[in-house]
Amino acid sequence: MGDWLRSARVYARLVAHGWTQLIVAVAGGAYGVAGAFVHLPLVPWWVGLTTAMCALFVAQFRAFHVVRLELVAQTSGVRVLQAIGLVNGLGPNYWPGQIGRPPDRVPDDAYNSEANELYVRVALAPEYVLPNAELQQDVRDRMRLALNASALEGWLQRRTHAAGAWTLQSHTHKKVVAVRTLQREGNGAVTLHGDAEFLLPVGPQSPRAVLVLDIVFQPDLGAAHRLSLKDLFELCHVLLRTAVDELAPLLFPRVMPKRRWYEREPPPAGPSIYIAAMGQGSTIGTFVDLSHLTQAPAADEGSVNSRASIDTPTGVRLKPRDRDVFVRDGLKKFLAASQFVDSESPIDSLTLDVNMRSLIEHG
Predict the structure, then answer these.
(1) Is 84 helix (H, G, I), strand (E, B) or coil?
(2) Which end of the chain is more exposed for a tag (fewer CB within 10 A), N or C?
(3) Residue 127 vs residues 209, 252, 256, 344: alpha-carbon distances, Å
């Protein structure tokens, strides 16, 4: 019975998407019923009923067509998936899913390619963009101001016990790069760096506009300090809050085509979270304390992955109430892939304190 109900809900939702046909069906049906009892001079009553039946057929056929395309997509390549809008364009094989510093980063001593550091990144993109879209000065200023007042900035200030500032390091008509000043964490063991980019399409390697938000951990050599799983859990939430709720509403409307009044706003691609350990022989365990967890007998520290991604499922729009499950499931998959015996309990036991929950929910 449960499967029947789920099918009924999906069927009703898909048919309801053809609301224009349903309006025609209701109007035609009403005209036909009225015409059966009252003489209407315009057209015969049976024309209304025929129109209603045809409109209902079109709405149902449209629902069938969507289901058929989804079935075809399960055994098809990326081209078919893109054609029906079911591709999460920010998956692990898409730049910037291949984690690393953006190729146009301005050289700086703080970005030593051999440095040991951990990247925690969230990426988000609008589904569509105008080919000739440009980033005007007001967009760049809004991005910088939003970062200065963001939940991420609040999180950084809690960690470093000091206020910082986001400045525009690179800004053109096709990209904005905002960087937060490097600051040492309160206990002095780690330097924290914030980095935000909004890039418009620049070619086949980056076919759509993309917002990238990074936090970089740069521990001192030999420092014993590592993040806890709870720290990583909180940071994922904060990055989602800042990218999805605070930056995207300012940036995306400026590069998305204008919709007609009857068109829905397209869902964004992503968000996706990427975690990467940089440096020779580094793994995520080098920077995140996993010592209290138990690995499989044949596993060791080298079995911990150096990369992890938490991707929004294809065709799904991540709702605010689902973010907690989204982050937890992604961290569980990372632990399981790193051969930890119990990847469920350590993540399920994570909680957010009152101040952190307020920061995530209200900024």
Answers:
(1) coil
(2) N
(3) 9, 9, 8, 33
For residue range 139-191, list pLDDT tens digits in order.
Answer: 888 899 999 999 999 999 988 888 888 988 877 777 788 888 777 887 777 78
Rounded CA-CA distance 88/82 in Å is 9
Residue 81: band (very low, low, confident or very high) from pLDDT cuts 50, 70, 90: very low
> 10 or 229, which is more confident?
229
* 120 Rama sector, left if φ>0, alpha if ψ -120 to 50, beta otherwise: beta
pLDDT 10s digits, 245-261 = 999 988 888 777 666 66
Residues 231 and 352 in one domain: yes
Q: Tell me whether residue 111 is in a domain.
A: no
Residues 6+ apart with CB under 8 A from 73: 80, 81, 84, 86
Residues contacting residue 261 through CB under 8 Å, at least 6 positions apart: none
Question: Are 124 and 208 members of one domain?
Answer: yes
